Amino acid sequence: MRVTGTGHASMRIDTAAGSILCDPWVNPAYFASWFPFPDNSRLDWEALGDVDYLYVSHLHRDHFDAAHLKRYVSKKATVLLPEFPTSEMEDEFRELGFTKFLKTRNEEVVELDGGLKIMIQALTSPTDGPIGDSSLWVEYDGVRLLNQNDARPTDLSTFAELGHVHAHLLQFSGAIWYPMVYELPSAAKTAFGKQKRDRQFDRTWRYIDDLKADHVFPIAGPPCFLDDELWQFNDIFGDEGNIFPDQSVFLSEYAKVGGTNGIVLLPGSVTEVTTTGATTTHPVPVEEFFANKVAHLEEMRERKRPIIEAEKASWRHPEVDVLKELKRRVEPLLDESIYLAKGVGGPVRFDLVGYDGESIESIVVDFPGKQVRPYADEKVRYRFRTERALVEHLLHIGEVDWVNSLFLSCRFSAARIGQYNEFVYAFFKCLSTERLQYAEGWYDEHERAVDAEDITLGDWVVQRRCPHLKADLSRFGIVDGDQLTCQLHGWRFDLPSGRCLTSVGHKVRAHRVGEDVAVAQAAPPAS
């Protein structure tokens, strides 16, 4: 099995039975904040994109690079789809021109042509990526590889049970905005950053120890920051609180815990993996490359500067009435939200800095009050400060995921009273009815695992959440005779039997009003 490094979390896997390109990312992401490092834009992407299979682990834009996928990856490739709870990934691929899909089932091994085997583990909590993350296991001729990339499963036993793994590729560096954007004293920011950096490495060591693969490849980070406004986030200043250590730092830290089997992939590096060893060739010596990291970054900064400036010029949309548009888009979602709104528990304030760099419009997303309104000088637990132009752009393009855009850009500052609240970020990554309904249903299912809630629709008592994607049937359910239709996606169910009429599985729990539940459950299904 041949593994070619193509930058960040991307690689090309070649076997005699076929090739797989994983997570190709080249163009800047998150408001031109993140770039791949080392730079991979000069690789021969025409050749690299001519593959049999394409795998993208999740929809974060440092993994799903739409412009690159459209231009460089063969549309003859079969897309290996994780079993995610929504169709967003497939929909995005189809928009780019891809037509061949293998829809995998979670944790089920699939044998492709020529004896190539793959298995995808999908993680589907609202906190996993942009509604979903995944890992890819590959086996050919006795050689096994796990591309874990960003995914954080509870353990790796599912992969270990398939046989000894020879190549384990996983994330080790930061991919978040904490603590850099928080309005804290520098000493506190450094202390929190050091804690996070240490936790990142500890988590990586645990995964490595769990799998005990022959060879370990640090991938999926770090990005580099080439905009002058973000340059300080690069780990080149000797800051022990920087959460973006690079691959050379990984090797050094790994050696401290006894690790001797680490292999770095530069863009263009090639590793031949067998059951007995691995041989790697690099385009330049790894040690020499990272010894000159600052020079490489400075050269990239000058070369990419026009790209950054062109992106910045596209963000302003003065015609957008931010308050009006936020009310139009967000208030209906607040009305639908139960678990997320309760979880946030208070108003969230956005301070929008005008084009002049001084004027500020403060807007509150009031979760208890279910409204978006001007700030009224009340106390808030969560506050964000960013350029008005960024929010204008998000509203202009109809962005449904502010985490996978604004927050990962690090182009904001934040303050909070109390601990981290996952519900704040879960809500702002779910700015569509489909995403919000899924997240609400997920929390409903996990928070109310013992006594699931029922509702009454006409003459029937049914479970509140649609078995398909957990939509709230009190809002989207319509009963006509003995049939239930969930209007969010048009799925239909036969209520006497509970059988789904739209797809295999997804049985609904239901009984007639006044009917003894035990009797209803014991009765044979309707023919």
| Tally of contiguous helical segments | 16
Radius of gyration: 25 Å
What is the helix content?
A: 25-40%
In what order do the strands lie side by side in the largest sheet?
7-6-5-3-2-1-15-16
* Helix/strand class: alpha+beta
Q: How confident overall, as mean pLDDT?
A: 94
By DSSP, the count of extended strands is 27
Task: Enumerate the spans where pLDDT stays under 50 for 5 or more consecutive residues.
Answer: 523-527
Largest β sheet strand count, sense and barrel closure: 8 strands, mixed
Distance between the termini: 53 Å
Question: What attributes does this structure have?
Answer:
single chain, 527 residues, alpha+beta, 8-stranded mixed β-sheet, 6-stranded mixed β-sheet, 16 helices, 27 strands, 30% helix, disordered C terminus
